[in-house]
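Annotators were shown the component list below and the corresponding predicted structure, then asked to write short factual statements about the assembly.
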Amino acid sequence: MALIVQKYGGTSMGSVERIEHVASKVASWRAKGHRVVVVVSAMSGETDRLLKLAKSIDPRGSEREFDQIASTGEQVTIGLLALALNKVGVPSKSYTGWQVALRTDSAHMKARIQAIDSERLLADLDAGIVPVVAGFQGIDDTGAITTLGRGGSDTTGVALAAALKADECQIYTDVDGVYTTDPRVEPKARRLDRITFEEMLEMASLGSKVLQIRSVEFAGKYKVPLRVVSTFVDGPGTLITLDEDSLGGNVEDALISGIAFNRDEAQLTIAGVPDRPGIAAAILGPVGDANIEVDMIVQNVGADASTDFTFTVHKNDYDRASDVVKALAVELGAKGVRTATDIVKVSLVGVGMRSHAGIASKMFKALAAEGINIRMISTSEIKISVVIEDKYLELAVRTLHRAFELDQAKS
Amino acid sequence: MALIVQKYGGTSMGSVERIEHVASKVASWRAKGHRVVVVVSAMSGETDRLLKLAKSIDPRGSEREFDQIASTGEQVTIGLLALALNKVGVPSKSYTGWQVALRTDSAHMKARIQAIDSERLLADLDAGIVPVVAGFQGIDDTGAITTLGRGGSDTTGVALAAALKADECQIYTDVDGVYTTDPRVEPKARRLDRITFEEMLEMASLGSKVLQIRSVEFAGKYKVPLRVVSTFVDGPGTLITLDEDSLGGNVEDALISGIAFNRDEAQLTIAGVPDRPGIAAAILGPVGDANIEVDMIVQNVGADASTDFTFTVHKNDYDRASDVVKALAVELGAKGVRTATDIVKVSLVGVGMRSHAGIASKMFKALAAEGINIRMISTSEIKISVVIEDKYLELAVRTLHRAFELDQAKS
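Structure shown to annotators:
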C-alpha cells in the first residue's frame, strides 16, 4: 500500500471520455489498495484559448487578470474528474490551488511554490477520499490567484508528492516515457528505462517537453521518485532516479542519454562593451530586474579592451529584452547590438560525459561534416549545448543521434 | 458624486466587443465623478455550457463539484472587464466571490448570502480603483465555492450595494426596463417608469425574468434603490422604489401594474388525504427536507373527511418531488397522486388592488369569455394567480392586458 500522486496532463483531460478513462485508471490503482492524490491540467488547448481571449482585449494587460482568467481551465477539469470518480464509486473532492493553500510568490504567470498545507489532503486520504487538485495554480499573500507558468501542473504534482511524502509521483502524459530525443525529429529515438534527475533536468530545461524543469528540480531536491508514463498505453514508462548506480552498471556504455533541443530561444549580443570587472552584472542586473530569465550566457575574451557579451532568452521575452539591451548599449558605450531569433539550441546530455573526454570534439566534428555552423557553445559537467541556425535542427539531431549510437539499446 | 453599484448580465458580457462597450459605460459614469463597483455575470450561455459538460458525466453528481465548475464562468468575465477598463485608462481589479469574502451558507446551487467584507472594496474605491466582482458566487464555511442559483448576479449586486451603502444599484440588462408583461407574448406591453418593491417582487417571483426575486427582497429589506436599465439603449429604465406615493399619485388609476407568468412550474396533488390538523405540515415537511422549494399551495375543503392537497414546484425539482409525494401518499393512506407539467401560472400584480374590489371577478370573467379553464387560484394582497393549461398562456396574457388597459400609459 503506497501513497501515490498522479498527474494527468491536458491531453489526458481532453474530453469527457478521456476524463472517464482517467477515472478508471485512478480507480484501478485505488482498488489495489493504494492511496491516491490526483493533480490535473486544463483540457488541452483551454489555457491557450483563455489567454488568447484575455490578450484580445490587451496583449500587455495586467498579469494578475491573465492568471485570474487562465486558472479557470483546471477549475473545470478538477470538478469533472471528481464527478467521474464519484460515478465509478470512488469518493472524491476537487480542490483549486487556493483551496489547498498552495502558496506562491506574486510573480504572476511564473509564480514559484512556497508552501502547501497538506493537512486537508491527508484528512481526505484518511477518510478514503481521492482529492483532485488543480495543477498550475496557487495563491499569493494578497489573495490573488497566481499561475506557475507552462507545464506548472507537473510542478504541482511533485510539490504535493513532497509535501505528502508520497512514495512515487507519476506523470501521465501522451508519451510513454523519456526518449533519447524527440521522435518527431528523429524516428529512431528510443525510450529510456531510467534516467538520472540531473540528466532529466538538462533534457527538460533544454526543451524536451516531457516534463517541466521545475518539477524535476523539486523531485531531485525532495528525493521524490518520478515516473513518466502514458495515459493511453500501459507500460513501465521512464523512472527518474537519484541514483546513478541504479542505471544498471551500464554508465560506462551510456556516455550520452539523449539529445535535447529548444526552438524557443532568441539571442542578444552587446558588441564591444568595455572588458572590465562587473560588466556581466551590469548587463544581467537590469535584465533580471525586468523579470526576464536568461538561459545561455557566453562572454568571449576580447581582442582589445572590449568584449562581446551574448545571452539567450525565451522568445516571449525577446521584445522586452531587446528594449533593455538597447538602452544598456547606449549607457555602457557599447559598439552595437546584434540579435537573432532564427536560432535553435541543440544539446547532448549524459552523466557518462563526466568520465569521458573527447565527447565535445566528436560532436563538433559530426556537425562540421554536415556543414552546420556553430554560433555559440556552452558546456556543463553533463551536457554540451550549441546554438545553430534553426533550419539545421533536424539534420543536427539526426546526425548526433547516429554519431552517438543512441538508437541502439544498451543492456 | 455618488457611489453606484452596476451589474451587467450575460448578454452585456457576451463578447469581447460587448465587454469593451461595458467598459466605456463604466468609464463614462466614473468620468462624471461617481465611484463605481461593477458586478458581472458569465458570458451568456457559458454557465449552461459548463453545467451541461458537468452533467454529461453525471446528471445527479455532487452539487459541490457543479458549483466548482460553473463558477468559472464569471471568473473569466471579471478578468476580461478589468483588462478592458485598464485599457481605457480606468484602474481596475477583478475579484471572485471568495476574494471579497462573500460568505454564503452551504446550499450548493442555491446558496444564500450571509456576509460580505466591504473593507477591501472600500479601500480600492478610495484608491481610485474600480473593483469588478464576480456575481452569482460565494464561499461557504468549509472553503467550498457556492453559487446563488440562476440570476444570482442580481442578488450579488444588491448585496454589495447594501454592504457598501451605495446610492443606487443599477441592473444593466438587454431590456430597457420593467414592462407590464413580456413583450414577446404581448407586443403592446409598456415600460413602467416606476414600480414598488412589493410589485416587483411579485412580478419577479412570478416569472418576469428581468430581475431575480432574491435581489428585490434584498433591495427592499436594505432600502437600496434599484434601477433596471438597458446596456444597449440609453434611457431612464425603471426605478424600483420603496414608496408608493412616489408612483406619482396615480395609484388610483394604476390598479394593476403588470401581468407575470411562469412556465417553469409543475403541479402535484395528493388526493383524498385525511382532513385533520397537521396534514399540511405532514406533507410539506418531507418536501422541505428534500430541499425542494414549494410555490403555490392550495387545499380545499373536502366533501367527506378527506381533502385534496395541491402544490407547485419548479420543474427541475419535479422528479424528486414526485418521488417524495408518492411515498407520502402511501404513508398517509391517500387515495392517489395526480401530477401535471403542462401548466402555466399567470398572475395579475398591482398595489392598487388593495383598495379596489372586483379585480378577481373581472379577471375570471375575462378568462371565461375566452373559454380558458382555471385549475388553481391563489391570491395575496397585491396579486391574483391562476394556473391554466400551458397552451392558453398567450391568449390569457393578451386577454388580461387588454381587459385591464395596460397598454395605455397612465399619467
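Statements collected:
1. The first strand of chain B starts at residue 3 and ends at 8.
2. The mean pLDDT of chain B is 90.
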